[in-house]
Amino acid sequence: MNEELAKLREQIDALDERVLVLLNERARLAQAVGHLKLSNGEEGGPIYRPEREAQVVRRLQAANAGPLPGEAIERLFKEVMSACRALEQPLTVAYLGPAGTFSEEAAVKQFGQSTHGLPVASFDEVFKTVEADLAEFGVVPVENTTEGAIGRTLDLLLATPLTVCGEVAVRVRQNLLRKVGGLAGIRVVYSHAQSLGQCAGWLNAYLPQAERVAVASNAEAARLAAESEDAAAIAGERAAEVYGLAIAAPGIEDVAGNTTRFLVLGKDAAPPSGKDKTSLAVYVRNKPGALLELIEPFARLGVGLCKLESRPAKSGNWEYVFFIDLEGHREEPLVAEAIQEAARHALSVKVLGSYPTAL
Ligand SMILES: O=C(O)C(=O)C[C@]1(C(=O)O)C=C[C@@H](O)C=C1
Fold this sequence. Notes:
aromatic amino acid biosynthesis, binds prephenic acid, EC 5.4.99.5, alpha/beta, Alpha-Beta Plaits, 6-stranded mixed beta sheet, prephenate dehydratase activity, amino-acid biosynthesis, phenylalanine biosynthesis
């Protein structure tokens, strides 16, 4: 057995050396791409190319014969591209901090570890930080499969000059964290309002007496729970590690498969990747049939809608802005035509961005 093990490891060592050589060959090519981009100034375009990264991963997933699952191919090659990209130019990405939030997880999932993360105090700060050029990109949650839309993000999208250049989905496993194990003696549960909502059923069943206190982030909740014996936090596993807490109850979200979708904000529009989405914000007149007129061109031209969400327009009571996600890139002729026609029935249309559909 020992001999067999040694032989297998020898083969792994030999392969690792080949992988190492290939990785560095790839890195040198990426460096050359980086020089080309930077030496061409404006024309060279941005360093980060979300459409190209999506194409690289999709192509390799399609070619993948296993046994590695497609999800591992995505993770590994995103890290490879992250390291290559950092050689071209280091990027800063802002997200809701502190360390240990699901926003941080989303930022790492999209940009990899070789990126400078900039945790900030609120969703508003994420927008402001990118707008002020203190970070090249920002990552904000936009909807959750249990709790629906993140209203604050939608409101901020209406006002920002930034563009949406990516989306990333993160499976959100919520845990009850505290200094010690068990549920006895918990008087207060801290979490972000979204997470309290995602676990409302569980809290009603197991901790009906505990006070629920909404705080700025799940990681902040974990920090508070680490300070007191009778407090607990709802947060992800990462926060337990960061703040040295025990997982008193794992997987307490009410809906299985609880997932949050995040948007990537930047300054450059992403060109088509072959499988894209476009997000719009549309103001319509408050009159009968307005919504029907608005979405009719999409149906007629065969452009699929994946999301329709209304939100108070704040221009007057009972007036609404519709957030529409559709399949396709704004540069595709049918998509462009459908948007143009819809705009004729709208007071205004803001294209928030076109971006590669999450892998
Ligand atoms: O193809 C490019 O434009 C590159 O810069 C190379 C590369 C890569 O490592 O494959 C790195 C960064 C970009 O976001 C996309 C791809």
